[in-house]
Amino acid sequence: MATKKQSNNNGDEIPNQKTKHKGKHDKDKPWDDPNIDHWKLDKFDPSWNPSGMLDVSSFSTLFPKYLEKYLQDVWPTVKSALREHGVSCDLNLVEGTMTVSTTRKTRDPYIIVKARDLIKLLSRSVPAAQAIKILDDEMQCDIITIGNLVRNKARFVKRRQHLLGPNNSTLKALEILTGCYILVQGNTVAAMGSFKGLKQVRRIVEDCIQNKMHPVYHIKILMIKRELAKDPNLANENWDRFLPRYKKKNVKTKKAKAKEKKPYTPFPPPQQPSKIDLQLETGEYFLSEQKKSAKIWQEKQEKQADKTAENKRKREAAFVPSEEPAIQDPNILKNDAVDVNAMAHSLKEKAKEFGKKKTSKNVDPQAYIASKEAPPKKRTKHAKS
């Protein structure tokens, strides 16, 4: 294909560039519009599929026997909810199955998958009022199998209890933070919510059962992320520097004491004597029934007397006075008594000397002068009366 040549202002010839022509499939599409929100889920309109389904699709699932009575009670509610979407359902109590299938009135091609999830949730003990919400377009479900993640049964039960927490507090916190409904039942965990919430729930459940991280740490991380999401300045930044990092600690456990291995002998241990053999050795086997009963009664009386004496001794032990501490060295106590007596004698002499000095210095002359007024008479008992 020849290309035309053009000349510039200086007269030089410049070859013309090839123009790219769009093909049949490179045309602008009607949905290539920035104003359209491609993540928005529009409600299904029956006019989009007026002819209905070309073939019948059906799903079936088993349910445990203990749910038979409950499913019988709630089945009319489930049936009416599915009838609104043109889906028929059947409850077979003989085979223990639930079946859903499309009809001529079915217009939404994805509603049969939603109905399949509905019967799966019902078979895992999810309440019917909660399970019917799966028929909404914005509600999704995920059934996580946890029974095959741990081999040890006791360890599995303990880790599953970590997921629930005391009084189901951990499970309620996870439901609030993830926005999902979570039900732990047997070897499975049924969750209902958005895609983002279900992804978080699956990661938390698997980390808990595999002992990678405790659910409480996941709750702390989710709470920090919720606070960071409120700040518009951090919307396009990496949050790893704000999130805590938990290291797994290996806690040392006490090792069980190993039993001493006895030396190996090819011979079996000697047979222990039976009850009859013991009676033959003591001669009790040949006693009459009357004598046997009398001997049993006598042994019972002796045990009772011993028990009574023991109880009496325990009661009287509370009234026994405690013993005084024994004197270790009598010479030390004698010396101490002599020192105390000498100190008391010296203090008395000093007190007498001090009293004599005080009387000689401070003499009151008025005490020796007689006064005109007579001293008051003491009142006697007869005067009072």
TrEMBL record:
GO terms for MF: RNA binding
Domain of life of the native organism: Eukaryota
GO CC annotations, alphabetized: small-subunit processome
Biased composition (Basic residues): 250-260
Any matching Pfam family: KH_KRR1_1st
Residue ranges occupied by any KRR1 small subunit processome component first KH domain in the UniProt entry: 57-137
UniProt key word Repressor: no
BP GO terms, sorted: rRNA processing
Residue intervals of the KRR1 small subunit processome component second KH domain: 139-230
Compartment(s) of residence: Nucleus, Nucleolus
CDD domains: KH-I_KRR1_rpt1 (cd22393), KH-I_KRR1_rpt2 (cd22394)
Bias-annotated ranges (Basic and acidic residues): 25-34, 297-317
Residues spanning the membrane: none
Family statement: Belongs to the KRR1 family.
Subunit structure: Component of the ribosomal small subunit (SSU) processome.
Protein name as annotated: KRR1 small subunit processome component
Protein species of origin: Saponaria officinalis (Common soapwort)
Organism phylogeny: Eukaryota, Viridiplantae, Streptophyta, Embryophyta, Tracheophyta
